[in-house]
């Protein structure tokens, strides 16, 4: 089974009506789409991960013609929106494309900063041919950047979506060699020799790995 992690960016198109609604408000950001599913014709149920003014989110949702029912839970500026809505925008087209090619989506879909704009990072599972065909049939206005393509590794879980292949290789070696044991059973130099890279590169990679893991745990 193959796994592909990609980042989608878009032109001036509506990717998701509720995300667009919140994007126009300086106090709100949708950070991830935890789940989307059609429940009957023209109606969807969703879970959205939200950061910002939750009371403002309730006000906007109450006024939106796309939101039929909703509930916002959370505190300290972070929450989850349970939403029944009339449309899922281009997100629904993407889900239909995955269904057509029998690909499995590894939730959540994460919004990220791409530098110039926001992008949607997601991981899909399936055959190599199905992944490539689906990538070639994206809706107009949607652009794809491949982050990672390889064999699916269920033991890595979310770890493989947070780290690059090189970082994952180093992290797994560090764990095997006892770098995180107390006391440590290996050094940066020994890890560098094993991978034939510079000691400074090992140090830099481990710092980035640990920062990503801590950020993922806290976030």
TrEMBL record:
Nucleotidyltransferase found in the keyword field: no
Keywords: Transcription, Transcription regulation
InterPro entries membership: HTH_bacterioopsin (IPR007050), HVO_0513_N (IPR056493), RNA_pol_sigma_r3/r4-like (IPR013324), WH-like_DNA-bd_sf (IPR036388)
Signal sequence residues: none
The organism's place on the tree of life at top rank: Archaea
Record domain HVO-0513-like N-terminal: where: 16-152
UniProt domain HTH bat-type: residue ranges: 163-214
Database matches in SUPFAM superfamilies: Sigma3 and sigma4 domains of RNA polymerase sigma factors
Protein name: HTH DNA binding domain-containing protein
Organism of this sequence: Haladaptatus litoreus
């Amino acid at each position: 089974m193959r796994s592909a992690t990609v980042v989608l960016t878009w032109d001036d198109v509506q990717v998701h009506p509720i995300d667009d609604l919140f994007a126009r408000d300086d106090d709100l950001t949708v950070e991830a789409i935890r789940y989307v599913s059609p429940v009957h014709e023209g109606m969807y149920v969703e879970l959205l991960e939200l950061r910002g003014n939750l009371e403002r989110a309730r006000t906007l949702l109450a006024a939106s013609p796309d939101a039929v029912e909703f509930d916002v839970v959370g505190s300290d500026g972070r929450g989850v929106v349970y939403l029944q809505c009339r449309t899922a925008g281009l997100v629904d087209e993407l889900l239909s494309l995955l269904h057509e090619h029998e690909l499995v989506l590894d939730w959540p879909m994460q919004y990220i900063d791409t530098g110039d704009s926001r992008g949607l990072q997601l991981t899909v599972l399936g055959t190599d041919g199905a992944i490539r065909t689906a990538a070639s049939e994206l809706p107009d206005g949607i652009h794809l950047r491949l982050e990672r393509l390889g064999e699916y590794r269920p033991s890595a879980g979310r770890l493989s979506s947070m780290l690059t292949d090189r970082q994952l290789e180093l992290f797994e070696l560090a764990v095997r060699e006892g770098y995180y044991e107390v006391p440590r059973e290996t050094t940066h130099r020994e890890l560098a020799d094993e991978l034939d890279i510079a000691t400074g590169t090992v140090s830099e990679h481990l710092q980035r790995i640990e920062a990503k893991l801590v950020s993922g745990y806290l976030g």
